Amino acid sequence: GNSVTQMEGPVTLSEEAFLTINCTYTATGYPSLFWYVQYPGEGLQLLLKATKADDKGSNKGFEATYRKETTSFHLEKGSVQVSDSAVYFCALTPLGNRDDKIIFGKGTRLHILP
Amino acid sequence: DAGVIQSPRHEVTEMGQEVTLRCKPISGHNSLFWYRQTMMRGLELLIYFNNNVPIDDSGMPEDRFSAKMPNASFSTLKIQPSEPRDSAVYFCASSIRVGQAGELFFGEGSRLTVL
Question: Which residues of A touch B4 (CB under 8 A)?
Answer without folding.
Answer: 43
